[in-house]
Design brief:
The structure is a homodimer. Helix content of chain A is about 45%, strand content about 10%. With about 280 residues, the first copy, chain A, is α/β, with parallel strands linked by helices. The first copy, chain A, has one domain (about 1-250): 3-Layer(aba) Sandwich (Rossmann fold). A five-stranded parallel β-sheet of chain A has the order 2-3-1-4-5, sandwiched between helices. The longest helix of chain A is centred in the N-terminal third of the chain and has 24 residues, at about 30-55. Chain A is globular and about 70 Å long. At the A-B interface, α2, α3, β2, α8 and α11 of A face α2, α3, β2, α8 and α11 of B.
């Protein structure tokens, strides 16, 4: 799964070469259902070890056009993991305090501690995307930021944080159908932001800004992945696969108890419950 | 469900009057399974509205002796909720920076924003429990803190945060059987803290400190609940019920779109996908 969606390093990418409607060899949701459930179980097992070991961590960066399904993918893939070891951080317009710092400051604070998984719903990449499209970041500054991002991600990967970057790829016509859905479903209208309509006019500029990001910021240890996202079920399946594969690459293991703890096993009073009286559910 | 586990205000509580092995009228897990699943679904629906409305929030405080199942209850009850709107905060020994502030500072920072649910795994109550048992907080200071906690919780409830306080009630013999389990299961040994054995010697002091907390800090709008927790399945069932009931009491509703957004529905280009070509999974 992984290899086909992982971007090569230092190569110019054309988004139009990638089909947002791709579903690989699958035709419908039912074909991946069983594997999806197995992968979720494996994610739980891997997360349990990650959390117990407190040595490695995982950062999953989600980017994509409005309506590409960042919220939905995070919800679908991560609901079910142990919430103790997982956090979502959503980055919207910076606050005054955030804007008064360098552009990596607010995201750095939310980086996962050892043992944790963090999902970034948007990220520091916005500072070379939306700000670039709207002329707040010029070419020179963008180039500096690409380097700063590279150094920031290197800092994380050097310190046992796996960095997985995911772009949810949709078509422009898919976006309009999602916007229409949001407007017509009273339980979804709250998600509708009139600004999305205005941003839509900058579609081609965003494509170019993303292509620049992919070209400059796909590093060996922190590559970008383009996930076809016109089909929700396939999007979730690929995202989950990428996350499980990222965790599989880590040498995760339950920590061995130290000698002191092992000795205690002998010293503990015996279980005093009478046979067969074990509390139910244990 | 709620009323029977909610503590009255200002009354002296004896923990020994509460049976940690209680399972109400139920004999085994299977009897509550269906209702548990229904409640989880309702929790998801209520959370979706809470998050959309961004007006109210919920703080669930979990306290209990070591091994009472705070981690387990939070995992069981909240795995499945939309992780965007939910955070667990675990409070262990304060850091140097935290200890240099008043005792409510570090927890206040983690209070839920409007629209969010926060679970506190231990809380500011530790500062009238563990510190009291070990003589770091004297009677005078404890009394002051009870009042400060009252004012802090009033601040939250005045500002649309529902405060639900849950004590997971286990027996001393149940605790030892859990400690034994942790020591003998290589996948659980990492949870074992030799300190738990030492703390066990203070069991009666903890009981008294908790009884004091219940007597001084059960307020009309932020009552304590004692949840029988010797049986994991019953514990989770009661905790989930309490959370759902707390959310039901809030006037949650999806926000109505403003006139500007309603107008946009007419202006949007029509869905241009040919009939029957709707993306799969939508």
């Amino acid at each position: 799964m992984d290899a086909s969606y992982r971007l090569p390093r230092g190569k110019r990418i054309k988004l139009s070469d990638y089909d947002p409607g791709d579903t690989s060899s699958f035709k419908e949701k039912e074909e991946v259902q069983e594997q999806f459930e197995q992968l979720k179980e494996e994610l739980n097992e891997l997360q349990d070890k990650l959390f117990a070991q407190k040595k490695y961590s995982l950062l999953v960066v989600f980017q994509g056009m409005d309506c590409s399904g960042k919220d939905g993918a995070i919800k679908k893939v991560f609901s079910g993991v142990n919430p103790h070891g997982f956090r979502v951080s959503s980055f919207k317009k910076p606050s005054a305090e955030e804007a008064a710092h360098d552009f990596l400051w607010r995201t750095h604070r939310e980086a996962p501690a050892q043992g944790y998984i963090a999902a970034f719903n948007r990220s520091y990449y916005e500072e070379v995307l939306i700000t670039r499209v709207h002329g707040q970041t010029d070419e020179e500054e963008a180039k500096r930021r690409f380097k700063q991002i590279k150094h920031f991600e290197k800092l994380m990967t050097d310190n046992h944080t796996k960095v997985l970057k995911i772009f949810l790829h949709i078509s422009k016509s898919f976006q309009i159908s999602k916007l229409q859905q949001r407007l017509r479903d009273p339980e979804k209208t709250w998600k509708f932001d009139p600004n999305d309509i205005l941003e839509r006019n900058y579609w081609d500029d965003y494509v170019q800004a993303y292509e620049d990001v992919f070209s400059h910021c796909s590093f060996k240890e922190a590559p970008w992945h383009i996930v076809p996202s016109n089909h929700r079920w396939f999007r979730d399946f690929v995202v989950l696969s990428l996350i499980v594969e990222a965790l599989r690459e880590l040498p995760l293991a339950y920590p061995k108890p130290d000698a002191k703890v092992t000795e205690l096993i002998g010293l503990l009073p015996e279980d005093t419950r009478p046979e067969g009286a074990a509390p139910k559910g244990y």
